[in-house]
Structure formats: C-alpha cells, structure tokens
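lol so apparently i was supposed to do this last week
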Amino acid sequence: MTRRIVRTACQLAALTFCSIIVVYFLDNRFRVLPSAIHNVMPAHHPGLVITDITVTRCSSVNLISSCKLDPEIWHRVEKDLFLGSGWVSSAYVHVQRKKEEELLAEDKVIVDIKVGRLDPSSGQKGEENARWESRPGGLWLKRSAKRHASDDSRAITAVDVLFGADAVDPRPAWETVDRPLLLDVKGEIHEARISVRRGKPAAPAKGVPRIRDNGKFKIMQLADIHLSTGTGNCRDPEPADFDSGMCEADTRTLDFIARLMDEEKPDLVVLSGDQVNGETAPDAQSAIFKYAEMLVKRKIPYASIFGNHDDEGSLPRAQQMELIETLPYSISSAGPEDIDGVGNYVVEVLASGASKHSALTLYLLDTHAYSPDEHAYKGYDWLKKNQIDWFKQKADSLKKAHEGYTHIHMDLAFIHIPLPEYRDESLPRVGKWREGVTAPGFNSGFRDALVEKGVVMVSCGHDHANEYCSLSPNESGNPALWMCYGGGAGFGGYGGYGGYHRRVRFFEVDMNEARITTYKRIEHGTAAQLAERIDDQIIVEGGKAKGL
Ligand SMILES: *[C@@H]1O[C@H](CO)[C@@H](O)[C@H](O)[C@H]1NC(C)=O
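anyway here it is w/ 2-acetamido-2-deoxy-beta-D-glucopyranose bound
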C-alpha cells in the first residue's frame, strides 16, 4: 500500500518533490516493513519442489522498474533483501516451484545451492555430470533431472530469506546457506542469507514439560533479551571493558544464556517479552530464530509472550505467534481470539512418569504495550477485563482436574509489564529496586484475581534493572503472592542504573515438598569467571507463599 501511495504521489508531483517523498517513505519502511507484514512467510506448500531460484533487483526511484517477475511462473519471497534501507534499490528472491506429481521427465529440481564469486565446480571432478548454474547475487544452483530418485531427500522444497551474520534456522530440515548473497550492502545486519528446506516437510518435535522422576522441575525465565536482526549493538554493557570493548549485543547475550542452559539444565524456558528489539529488528523472524535455535538444539520446551518492543520491527504479534507456534519444542500459543492480546494461554506441567495429571500450571498473559488513553493514564497499557475474566474462568474450570493430582498442585503466572502492586515499597522484598516501576497507571485488578484463585507467584520483565521479588499479603495479612522481576538479560536493551549486570532468574520447583526456590545468575563478562548465583530464597513451601 505504501508503495502505491508513493507512486501516485510521484505521478502527481514534480520530480524533485517526488524524490523527497520516496526517501521519506523508504526511511519509514525501515521501522515497519509493509511487504513483510503482508506476507510473513513464503507459502511452504507441501508437495512442492523448487525448480529454479533467482534474485531480481529493481530501482525504487525509477517507477517503471519492477521487482516482481511474472507471477504465473515465479513466486516471490516477500522480503526486500535490502530490508527497506536501500536508498535506490530493492531486491527479492524469486522461486519457481512445481507440484511433485506434475514434474515431467525433463524437469530439473535443485539439489544443491551455494553462494560465492567463483563457480563451485571449478577444480572439482565432474560430479554426476551436473554443472553449477549461476544466478544473480552470487547464487549457484545445482539442478538434477527428477528421474534420479536418489535426489528426493536432497531436493530443495522451500526457500526463505534470513538476515545477519548470526542467522540460524531452527525449523526441521531447514538449513541456512553459509554465505550471504553478494549484494552491495553495508553492515552485517543486512547480510541476506538464503535458507532452504530439503525433502518432505517434517512435523516439528513437540515439547512436553513434565516433572522429573525425582519430583523436581526447573524454570528459566528469560526477560528482555532484546535480540536484533544481526548481532546488534550493546547498550550500557557491564563490565564494559570485557573483550577489549568489542561488544556485539546478541553474541554476548546468547553466549551467556547458552552457558546457563548448559549449567542449569532447565526443564522449561519462559520468555517473558521483549525477545525482539523491534527498533533494530527489521526482520523479526531472524531475531526469533536465534533464541529458538538454542532451545531446539537442547530440546528444551519454551513458552513465549510479548512485550512492548517485540512488534516494533517487521511483524505484528499475531504473525510472530503464528511463526513461533510452528517451531520445534515451542509450547507457545496465541490463545483465544475473542479476548484482548496475543498469547493468553495456559501451560500444564505434567506430573512425573507417564501421568496425565497436571502438577504445575503456568498462566501466561499478554500485557500489551503503551497506554490506549495517554491523557487519563500515562505510560503503559493494562490487562483487560476480558483477559482477567478468562483467567478466572480458566482457573475455575481446571480446579477439579488439578485436585486429582497426588501431591499439592501449584499455580504460577508470567507477564511482561509489572502490576501496579509492584510499586508498593512497604512490602518485604529480596533483590534490588533500582529504577521506577513502570506499571500501568490504571489498576485493572489482576493481582486480586491471582490471589483469589490461589496463584502463588507472578513474574514479569520490562524494568530491566529491577530484579526483586516482593511479597503481597492477603486481607488477613498472611503471605499470598510473590511478585517477581526476571531482571533484564539482553545486551541489546538498556542497562545502566549504576552499572547493572545482565542476569537471569530461575525457579526450582520441588513437588515432593510443594516448594519453590528462586535465585538469579549474573553475567560478569569473563568467561572463566563463575556466573555468580545470588539471592537464593524459598518463596513457596507446602504449596503456599512463604513469608520472609
Ligand atoms: C489469608 O491466608 C491465610 C493463609 O493462607 C488463610 O488461612 C486465610 O484464610 C486468608 N485470608 C483471607 C482473607 O483470604
């Protein structure tokens, strides 16, 4: 739509005026990519094979040049290879595809793909008589006649585009070509990489969280990892002199997280929002894939909800969730369509062994982004009545089933933006309060609903430098609800406040005692140094919130 507006405006306006408009719209596209919004993923139809791939380039200033080849023949992967940042150029990957059963004897299918300046076959002995064919952008294709049945598992059946030097593809049978397309782009963020799927689409592995045989279960909360398209820039890194001051945000964030995953071996990871640093993620898919790949590789189930920054890049919440839902080990869900937000859902952690009973229930809710009524309530949005009603109904409907569990069943909740009650400085707490609590100005009553339904702990993210748990009492003054912060883990998000070290919160659940212990692990920069564990505390004992 943006492009049509530009074009119409240009046809009406004088040429000099026109180019100003073009530049203005191009600049805007960096933030919100219309092409990506209209078509999140290329349609990966089952039963299709790719018979040709090419890269087309067009001018954004010359209004006659088009980036779309004949749609009867070519399917366009809807991602501008310049990510909308090219002042004068756009470029797209196009593929030809055919239904497998419609392939003729003379049709060829792509069995290998490479990127580089030189013909990959030069210096090699004539392998299968297949020659590498050149395409624009440094692309080389090896095509083979379909009659070679042996090519079935090698045949490329879907093509996608990812960006950045650290691009990875966690989808089953997908692989990212190791070198970026040869386009004259500046900066590694814009390195466009082809990702391909080989063979028939495989169903993603399912993540089923379950209490271990020893009755224990560990949850790792990743709060505000702020990943970018590309390796990103560190904000307020602490310590700053680590690695001779060279700081790639996502490299450092992911290294830290990987190390903790390997040491702590969590059974479930909750990503509590702001996984994607929208402003520096013109391709949100590339950012999401980075965290997903680490979890898929380690076979750890994960549940994601969104923060205020996730959808400030190329993809709205609904389309991000559509993508995340299809990834291996993801147990994330968009939730019911008729209530506000995307990602209001329940995760049931099953009892140990082969039990079908739930031992632990996690309620995850979308806390949205900015206030819809800035005049009356400054700052951030709040949980809506229909979400709170959904939560209460859900809790009621699950009550009977949960009572069937042989031990004490427990309920926890995760959100992104803190609740207004986090502001209460008089509450007992463990951990640091470093910055103003940016809870919404309007209190829609979620804390009361949590207490009413017996949820013993809620944890949020959002305020990176706050990392305390405070205890909210019930009406008779008894411990009722622990309200925790995860503590910001990502170097692409702000730190500061007197030298905040990135950290990650863990919850260790012991079903034998209906006990929950929480602690944090801190990034000190030096790989050799222990990632210190601090603020160990038991927050739940015998299934009830425990006082200090
Ligand atoms: C407060 O919590 C205590 C301990 O769990 C419980 O016995 C009591 O009934 C609660 N009071 C109210 C008013 O909910």
